[in-house]
Amino acid sequence: MPAPYSSPFDSIRTFFKRRSALSTLIIINVVVFIAVNLVNLFLWLFTITVEMEGITGATRITRWLAVPSHLDALLQKPWTLFTYMFTQENFMHILLNMVMLYFGGRIFLEYLDEKRLVNTYVWGGLVGALFYIAAFNIFPVFRDSVVLSVALGSSASVLAILIAIATFVPDYSVNLLLLGRIKLRYIAILFVVLDILSINRGNPGGHIAHLGGAFWGYLSIILLKKGHPNPLLINWYGIRNMTRWFRRGPRVTYYHKKTGSGRQEAGGGRPVTDEEYNRMRAEKQKRIDIILEKISRSGYDSLSREEKELLFKASNKDQ
């Protein structure tokens, strides 16, 4: 008996009814897009314009949501580091970004969890903004435009997700219209190369921000493979290592098996030493690296149930 026909609209409706992290990110972007354009329309109807760092005709809503490259303006509006990555005014801009977010996010969630998807989106946007701000304040070519320039759009965040999953499963293939099946690694490389070559051909701030998002997407997966499953803890690990030499006190011991009090013990209830703990941690990380390599070669479905459970626990550690 043939399966009942499901129209694309039914699939889209089901996707948004699930209220997943991916659908929520798309909804936020769409709602902000509609709100921004309604406000812009209202301001246009009543001929209300403001000066945005010297640009006549810029709307008040854009002025308060886009991230500026000038440091003084950024200090006055620090929230724009977050709001810019959800703000788009142009229909084609948001359409392309949301299509990429949908397809890239769907592949991302086949292998990694929703928390990591949101983290990658937000941190990709933040790093993209930092790349943009740093470039406009460092390179002489932007000296005359740094006071006027602002950035907005989710492209850096979306590219971070695409590069992250391409780094995690580089041999994953997608079927592209007219081009056939192409591995994610080549799609990721193409996007990065195009952004690099396009910096001096218009919208340099946008392309630089894209590269920042791509950098974070790549870095977050490299850190995952090296045993840092939650990229939000990067600074904590760094601070802890930097201050280790300044701390004094008795030698710290670690415990292997979790008990009700939250402490860990070895199999016989004995506290383990630093060396034993590090050895066990290294062995576990070696197993995870083997699993990740297996995914790159044969895909996620080739993993055994035990391997999938180990990878799931590692990806949720410290989250």
What topology does this entry show?
Elements: H1 8-17, H2 21-45, E1 50-52, E2 55-58, H3 60-65, E3 67-68, H4 71-76, H5 80-83, H6 91-111, H7 114-138, E4 150-151, H8 155-168, E5 173-176, E6 180-183, H9 184-198, H10 204-225, H11 234-242, E7 257-258, E8 264-265, H12 274-298, H13 305-316
Antiparallel strand pairs: 1-2, 3-4, 5-6, 7-8
Reading off the top of the CATH hierarchy, the class of the largest domain is best stated as Mainly Alpha
Low-confidence stretches: 51-58, 234-269
Task: List how many beta strands DSSP finds.
Answer: 8
Q: Please name the CATH topology of the largest domain.
A: Rhomboid-like fold
**Total domain modules:** 2
Mean pLDDT score: 79
| Termini Cα gap | 45 Å
**What's the helical proportion of residues?**
55-70%
DSSP strand content:
5-15%
By helix and strand content, what is the structural category?
A: mainly alpha
Written description of the protein model:
- The chain is mainly alpha-helical.
- The chain has 2 domains: 8-225, Rhomboid-like (Rhomboid-like fold); 251-316, no CATH class.
- Helix content is 61%, strand content 7%.
- The chain has a two-stranded antiparallel ribbon with strand order 1-2.
- Strand 7 (257-258) and strand 8 (264-265) form a beta hairpin.
- The longest helix has 25 residues, at 21-45.
- It is globular, with a radius of gyration of 23 Å.
- The relative contact order is 0.09.
